[in-house]
Write a structure and sequence with these properties.
Family: Belongs to the AHA1 family.
Distance between the termini: 55 Å
Order of helices and strands: EHHEEEEEEH
Strand order of the largest sheet: 1-7-6-5-4-3-2
Strand content: 25-35%
CATH class: Alpha Beta
Helix content: 25-40%
CATH topology: Alpha-D-Glucose-1,6-Bisphosphate, Chain A, domain 4
CATH superfamily: START domain
Number of helices: 3
Protein name: Activator of Hsp90 ATPase homologue 1/2-like C-terminal domain-containing protein
Number of strands: 7
Structural class: alpha+beta
Organism: Paremcibacter congregatus
Oligomer: single chain
Length: 157
């Protein structure tokens, strides 16, 4: 019998970026392939680096990781799109869609800057794998949001 993990705390990440919410939102959605670590990102079944991440602007559409040859895989699906305040999407990078977790990103003005808050929840859907996947993703979001995205935004004029 599979062990079910209950009440796994969500991942909570916040970063303040010295740009407007409009700019930070656009950077996150429209330029993901420019700041995401594509060379280090692959699907669990393929061991080749991504060429791009396609992030949609219409609810229900797929978020896709694509290789240089145009093939790829589904990372998740957009569930809410409120420009420039909030996005919500499912996340199942390397997992079955039935095990999708949920990522919510909000963009809040703080003076002339923007506070980006990321919440990644739903680890219980992964059963016994939930706690380990949560730990792994905690460090991943630290790198991706706390370092790479923040640095990429800071370099933009």
């Amino acid at each position: 019998m599979t062990e079910i993990a209950n009440d796994i705390d969500p991942i909570l990440k916040s970063v303040v970026i010295d740009k407007s919410p409009d700019a930070v939102f656009r950077f996150f959605v429209d330029h993901m392939s420019e700041w995401w670590p594509l060379e280090e990102s692959c699907d669990a079944t393929d061991n080749k680096p991504l060429a791009r991440i396609v992030f949609p602007r219409e609810i229900g559409q797929e978020i896709r990781g694509e290789y240089a040859d145009g093939t790829g895989f589904v990372i998740g699906r957009l569930r809410h799109f409120e420009e420039p305040r909030r996005i919500l999407f499912t996340w199942h990078w390397g997992w079955e869609p039935t095990e999708a977790t949920e990522v919510e990103v909000s963009f809040t003005a703080e003076g002339s800057a923007t506070r980006l808050d990321l919440v990644h929840r739903g680890w219980e859907k992964l059963g016994a794998r939930g706690p380990k996947e949560r730990r792994d993703h905690e460090g991943g979001w630290d790198l991706i949001i706390g370092e790479l995205f923040r640095a990429w935004c800071a370099a933009k004029k």
